[in-house]
UniProtKB/TrEMBL annotation:
It is found in: Nucleus. Residues 22-78, 86-99, 171-188, 221-256 have a biased composition (Basic and acidic residues). It comes from the Eukaryota. Coiled coil: none annotated. InterPro entries: NRDE-2 (IPR013633), TPR-like_helical_dom_sf (IPR011990). GO terms for biological process: negative regulation of RNA catabolic process; regulatory ncRNA-mediated heterochromatin formation. Residues 1-111, 161-198, 210-256 are annotated as: Disordered. SUPFAM superfamilies: TPR-like (SSF48452). Transmembrane segments: none annotated. Its main location: nucleus. This is DUF1740-domain-containing protein. Belongs to the NRDE2 family. Keywords: Nucleus.
Length: 1028
């Protein structure tokens, strides 16, 4: 607000050399003042008379929304000119004011000392602009003392500074920042326009009359100031704020404003990249990689300046999706090859589904798929149909999957068998996962039982597919134990015995405790859930409960469309992928990860949902008093991990991460059933490569009883050196003495120490002593692999000569290179481990543990995460090392910057981010983590995450009223998941009305979901019981 002295200032006419005005004080200043007062009163009366007229004009102006840009430019020029004149007068009248002004003393509230501060400054990155008085930064936002090299610019709520580089701004010449010369480079010609004089108190005397009153001018100026901050235009490839083109009237801005604009451009790499990519596609429109990179860049623009605490608004996402669709349509018209066209089409159809209506999208899909059976296009179409509640039907999607399976297998005669069968296995996995999620669990499990029997237990005399299916039908209908069932011997044994086999014993159904709730829908939900849990495996004809539910018994005609034969010639090549697919279906991590199809399945949100495990009530919290003891708190070892399987993960015990989930984690299928299936594959089918994983499964189920299954494996595979090593590591978790005996016996057996296996045993032995704290003995164990005199050492540690150490180093190095040349990756990995271990044991200071800085550990882990962004072990260790209480959560920042980005984003990483917020964050950050995960393309259709989100919202008092909305969103994105629909009858039963529950049930039946208990019959039964 202006002071009284400033209000009484009188503007003077600018002084020119050719014009010297007379001294106004010597003329008639009282007369001028009187004229000004009378004119001001007249304007006041006119204002009061025409106030209603001005209101109508303002309303019409706002309604039309049109204002001439020239008027705005002229007003802005007027403001700047008036401001400069006033500033010049204040500088001239400064000494006089200093004499007359009195220093305010004792004015209450003039100065305030803030003793608390504003904690929201750190959260929002700046001051609350509404609490800061309006001010004008002079000198074009240049920083005082920098001579123009540093300039300030606005980035959202924050004021940032930038360094003006050589060739920019005023001081930019040949010497860059050191130059004292003004810039002399040529600039585009500017239109010179006469500045309209500023409004002054003596307008009439200066030769013009104001057409509007001062009050109206002030209101217009305020409107223009608000209109300068244009609302963001999300349809711009430049980012969230679309820059408008500079007009001729705007080109006459001050040089200070242009300096500010240059600084903003240089500090915005996203905008620079947008310009570069746009130039690339304009210069080379056939460059599809540039088009796709430009489309991907829109995601970075959408997330610019945001973090994990921010949820992208729906209109923002929709607007950016429209931009991407427009770009992809332009790219499609410039494709030159079939492969490029498919790449663009897949991207276009995925993004178009977010913008187009369901009917329009379905029509476009029918046009795209005409005459093109490309797998990637087909998979994108399948994802659309599976996640679109409008068009979803269980029978239609199931038929589509079965048709694709047949179409793929029909190409066996013309294309390479291995590639065709790998695609067929993926389609089969997706098919059975879909059937299982829809509630037909028995059918899905029976399909896997039949395929495994046909593949691994096929009689050698049967080669023809038709004869094989006829023989297998007889085996299936006999209801003898099948793979996974206790006492199963397999199809081969059944044929060799001449079809003589005893059927499995009838199973008695476990009693179901009736619900005590008076709510009929809640009682029905309890009964339906209990029946569904009891129907995880296919039943036999004589089992209890099969009379009321015909789907419990799976006959051969039900599974026949699923079956196909894998030729014996390629079985060894595709069997790892088939076993991995079976483990993924059962909810376990894959054993081999030897195929890109397995990697695709692990990252497929419709398949990997069964691997998601979250603890909604974690017990680990960071307290202020415990920040110094962060190293004593262990990471979470019981959560599912994403990594390559190794012995330390299979047999880590309670002190390390578990690759195979324990029985307490409630896997999708019974762990005992999966264990039996693996046991029969290893022992009955002779799949030796699966032995270590099977032993790890036995260790997970019963750690103390590992000796019995290990002895059986070693008896069947006595020459398997890696199996001996695995057994030693498993025993180390139970009894160190037994582990030493196993390793010593293995090193003394020449048949087991061939090639690089002796280095494997000695490295394992050395690790055991190192973990026990015997560094000297660990060095002896490792060097004993090249010096036989050290193999008999038990307790006394001899001195190892330098010659022995050099020999060990040279042996490990030469053998490592030989393994690399021969293509033996396992041997090269073992020898590289020996080299690293020897370097550590012989390095100075390795004799005892030494302190380390936590920041150093985080730096190393951060580098590992950059190389392996999906490895959840590195993420968990980084989270563990980041245990102190700080405003900035480094784990969250690392996830946002390196992990949850396109190309690396996956379901497991999103689950880790949510679990991190559940453990370290609060309810709001956890909710944002859920929202960000379910808004991403990689997790939008993951049923497990939606179920956890519904339960989380319902458990939080502040979010309970939103749980129902989350449920309907989940229903829209996961129409093929019965578990999602059943949340209405379990978690949300108290908040759902009877009509809503009835609507959910009708949706289940109309979409083709499996229902065990008919609701109408259940209601009639309840009414009959009440009437008694």
């Amino acid at each position: 607000m202006a002071s009284p002295d400033e209000q009484e200032e009188k503007l003077v006419v600018p002084k020119f050399s050719s014009f010297k005005p007379k001294n106004p004080e010597k003329e008639n200043p009282p007369k001028a003042n009187e004229e000004h007062e009378s004119r001001h009163k007249k304007h006041t009366r006119d204002d009061e008379k025409s106030r209603s007229h001005r209101h109508r004009e303002d309303r019409d102006s706002r309604h039309s929304g049109r204002e001439s840009r020239q008027h705005r430019d002229r007003d802005r020029s007027r403001d700047r000119h008036r401001h400069r004149i006033q500033s010049r007068e204040r500088r001239q009248d400064g000494p006089e004011k200093k004499k007359s002004a009195s220093k305010p003393e004792g004015v209450p509230g003039l100065f305030v000392i803030d003793t608390k501060g504003d904690p929201l400054i750190i959260r929002y990155g700046g001051l609350d602009r509404s609490q800061v008085p309006a001010y004008h930064r002079r000198e074009g936002r240049k920083i005082l003392g920098s001579e123009g090299r540093l300039v300030l610019h606005r980035d959202g709520p924050r004021d940032l500074f930038s360094i003006r580089m050589p060739g920019e701004g005023f001081h930019s010449g040949r010497d860059g920042l050191r130059s004292k010369r003004p810039k002399t480079e040529s600039r585009p010609a500017k239109r010179i326009m006469r500045r309209v004089g500023a409004y002054s108190e003596s307008e009439e005397a200066e030769g013009f009359l104001a057409l509007t009153s001062s009050r109206k001018r002030k209101r217009d100026q305020r409107n223009e100031e608000s209109s300068d901050d244009e609302r963001p235009s999300y349809r711009s490839i430049e980012g969230k704020a679309k820059p408008r083109q500079q007009s001729d009237s705007e080109s006459d801005k001050d040089s200070d404003m242009s300096i500010d604009a240059v600084a903003v451009d240089q500090s915005n790499p996203l905008k620079q990249k947008s310009i570069q990519l746009s130039r690339r596609v304009k210069e080379a429109p056939e460059d599809i990689d540039a088009w796709l990179e430009l489309v991907d860049h829109q995601d970075a623009l959408l997330k610019a300046g945001e973090d994990l605490d921010h949820t992208v608004l729906e209109n923002e996402a929709h607007s950016f999706a429209e931009i991407k669709v427009s770009m992809l349509e332009s790219a499609l018209t410039n494709t030159r090859s079939v492969e490029d066209r498919r790449r663009v089409l897949v991207y276009l159809m995925r993004e178009g589904a977010k913008v187009w209506t369901s009917k329009a999208t379905a029509k476009k899909w029918s046009e795209v798929l005409t005459g093109d059976d490309n797998f990637v296009l087909w998979k994108a179409h399948l994802d659309f149909l599976t996640a679109n509640i409008t068009t979803f039907q269980y029978d239609d999607v199931k038929k589509m999957l079965l048709d694709r399976l047949r179409l793929t297998l029909n190409r066996l005669a013309t294309e390479q068998a291995k590639d065709i069968l790998e695609e067929a296995i993926f389609v089969f996995l997706r098919l059975t996962r879909f059937v299982h999620d829809a509630g037909y669990k028995e059918l899905a499990v029976a399909a896997w039982q039949s395929l495994l029997e046909l593949t691994f237990f096929r009689p050698p005399a049967i080669d023809n597919e038709q004869s094989a299916l006829d023989s297998f039908e007889e085996f299936w209908e006999s209801e003898v134990p099948r793979i996974g069932d206790a006492g199963a011997k397999g199809w081969r044994q059944y044929v060799e015995a001449g079809g003589d086999g005893d059927a499995a014993e009838p199973q008695r159904a476990a009693p179901i405790t009736p619900s005590s709730s008076r709510d009929v829908y809640k009682a029905w939900g309890h009964l339906e859930h209990s029946r569904s849990q009891a129907a995880k495996l296919p039943a036999r004809t004589m089992d209890d409960g099969t009379d009321d539910d015909p789907f419990r018994v799976v006959i051969f005609s039900d599974i026949k469309p699923f079956l196909f034969l894998i030729p014996t010639s390629v079985l060894s090549e595709v069997s790892p992928q088939l076993i991995d697919a079976f483990l993924l279906f059962c909810g376990y991590a894959p054993a081999f990860k030897a195929s890109r199809w397995t990697e695709m399945a692990c990252n497929d949100q419709f398949i990997s949902s069964s691997l998601v495990k979250l603890d909604l009530q974690p017990t680990i919290h960071i307290d202020d008093d415990d920040t110094d003891d962060w190293y004593r708190r262990q990471p979470r070892f019981d959560m599912g991990i994403t990594a390559t399987p190794s012995l330390s993960l299979l047999f880590g015990g309670s002190e390390w991460f578990h690759y195979i989930p324990t029985t307490s984690q409630d896997p999708l299928l019974s762990s005992l059933w999966v264990y039996e299936a693996l046991k029969q594959l290893v022992h009955g089918a002779g799949v030796e490569s699966l032995a270590q994983y099977y032993l790890g499964m036995a260790f997970s189920n019963d750690q103390a009883g590992i000796k019995k299954p290990a002895k059986a494996l070693l008896k069947q595979y006595p020459a398997n050196s890696e199996l001996y090593n695995a057994y030693a590591v498993a025993e180390y978790a139970n009894d160190r003495g037994v582990a030493d005996k196993v390793i010593r016996a293995a090193t003394e057996a020449p048949s087991l120490c061939a090639k690089w296996y002796k280095y494997l045993f000695h490295a394992t032995w050395s690790w055991m002593d190192l973990e026990a704290g015997n560094v000297g003995l660990a060095k002896v164990r490792l060097c004993a692999s090249v010096d036989e005199t050290l193999r008999g050492v038990v307790t006394e540690v001899p001195e190892i000569s330098n010659t022995t150490l050099l020999k060990a180093q040279q042996t490990f190095t030469s053998s490592f290179h030989e393994s690399l040349i021969s293509g033996d990756a396992a041997g090269a990995s073992t020898l590289a481990e020996c080299m690293a271990l020897l370097a550590y044991l012989t390095a100075p200071g390795s004799t005892e543990p030494t302190p380390f800085r936590r920041v150093y550990l985080r730096e190393k882990l951060s580098g590992f995460i950059r190389q392996f962004p999906r490895n959840s072990i590195f993420l968990a260790l980084f989270e563990w090392s980041d245990a102190s209480l700080r405003v900035i959560d480094e784990t969250r920042d690392l996830l946002y910057d390196q992990v949850l980005v396109k190309g690396h984003d996956c379901v497991s990483s999103r689950a880790f981010a949510i679990q991190h917020e559940l453990t370290r964050g609060n309810a709001n950050t956890t909710k944002n983590a859920f929202e960000n995960a379910l808004a991403s393309d990689t997790c939008r259709n993951t049923p497990a995450l939606w179920i956890y989100y519904i339960r989380f919202c319902y458990a939080q008092k502040q979010f309970r009223n939103k749980a129902k909305d989350v449920f309907y969103r989940a229903l829209r994105h996961c129409p093929g998941s019965k578990e999602v629909m059943m949340e209405a009858f379990a978690t949300l039963i108290r908040d759902m009305e009877s009509e809503e529950l009835r609507a959910v049930y009708n949706t289940m039946t109309s979409k083709g979901m499996r229902v065990h208990v008919d609701l109408e019959e259940f209601l009639e039964k309840r009414r009959a019981e009440k009437s008694r």
